[in-house]
Amino acid sequence: MQLQTPDGTRLHVEELGAGAPLLMLSGGPGCVNYLRPVAELFPGHHCLLPDPRGVGQSGGKAQDIAGEIDDLEAIRQQLGLERWAVLGHSWGADLGLIYALERPERVARLVCFAGTGIQNDRDWKAAYEAGKHLEADFEVEYSPEVHASLLGAYRRYIKQPDLLVRLARLSVPVTFLHMQNDIRPNWFVRQLAELLPRGEYVELPGAAHNAWLTHAPELGVVLNRLLGEG
């Protein structure tokens, strides 16, 4: 379906299933929403998969984090939803955490699936780069302009002096679901799980970053347990 933001930009949102609403945010940043195979693990949910502004079938141009949050709110409002659960993968997990922080009253619960946490750590980056060749190939359409704009905005956002204090007060239940064989180090999401008052850390054995490619049944079991059956 196509929805329109207050400034007239059309956003493409794929819908799957029926039941409790679940917003699904893909990574990148700036990738088309590639989470349909994960959404298919949720037959009891109404899964909503938006393409970010300027990407795929969505109109508009690259913007910042505040603009992304506004677009998510425009989608929620046009669908007439008071609240929804949120599942974000990779950078989408980090965007989901920011969304929960900025609009906690709109997020019933959040699952940060294979995210990186709120950080720009050189040791983390070095570990990621050293293991990058081990990651299975996963090609997805993306916009370099949107990627650069959102990544820069994210790095500015995480430098806010009160960010950790705000996270320590976040009332939304948040699960950090890490893949055991993800080349992305887990220490930042484990720290966040300890910091957040309703945070938890869960690990999926044997799985890598794009777990649905190799561990779809196991991923479906754990995600349905975390999010309920709709």
Automatic annotation (TrEMBL):
Family listed: Belongs to the peptidase S33 family.
Protein name as annotated: Alpha/beta fold hydrolase
Molecular function (Gene Ontology), one example:
hydrolase activity
Tell me what organism the protein belongs to.
Deinococcus taklimakanensis
User: Which is one Pfam family of this protein?
Assistant: Abhydrolase_1
Assigned keywords, A-Z: Hydrolase
Q: Which PANTHER family match?
A: CIS-3-ALKYL-4-ALKYLOXETAN-2-ONE DECARBOXYLASE, MONOACYLGLYCEROL LIPASE
| AB hydrolase-1 domain location | 21-126
Which superkingdom, per the lineage? Bacteria
